[in-house]
Specification:
Elements (H helix, E strand, L loop, with lengths): L2 E16 L9 E12 L4 E12 L6 E14 L6 H29 L21
Antiparallel strand pairs: 1-4, 2-3, 3-4
């Protein structure tokens, strides 16, 4: 079994839209799209997440979207083992989620709305593509 090492992360794109008044009621929804790109030569991979938080009922009222990339190294990784790829995918998402939450919570507080916190992100094994 391979060992996963977190190397760092970046936010490659960040957009924010806020068209709300003080008494505006919002029903926020969050989506996370997460994919992993493997580099078999360097034994490294990147976890790409696109995180979006927006008002479910009114397009353009509130939207926060960012592209978060986490870099990982993996010792003993067998790039032919789909089960191993699935495990690393889930592990990487679990390591990055606290960073997504902190980014959203801090930024939402900075722009004058109650701090937003994402629910736990669960990767369903059947949804992971390994090729």
């Amino acid at each position: 079994m391979s060992t996963l090492h977190f190397l760092g992360a970046s936010i490659d794109d960040f957009t924010f839209q806020k068209n709300i008044k003080k008494d505006t009621e919002m029903r926020l929804e969050a989506t996370v799209k997460f994919a992993v790109r493997y580099n078999n030569d360097t034994k490294q991979f990147a976890g790409d997440a696109i995180v979006t938080v927006q008002d479910a009922g009114h397009e353009g009222l509130f939207r926060l979207k960012f592209h978060h990339v986490g870099a990982f190294a993996c010792e003993g990784f067998d790039h032919n083992d789909d089960g191993e790829k699935r495990r690393l995918h889930m592990e990487a998402a679990g390591m990055l989620q606290p960073l997504w939450n902190q980014t959203i919570t801090l930024f939402s507080a900075m722009v004058g709305i109650p701090p937003v916190k994402l629910p736990p992100y669960r990767v369903a094994d059947p949804n992971i593509r390994t090729s």
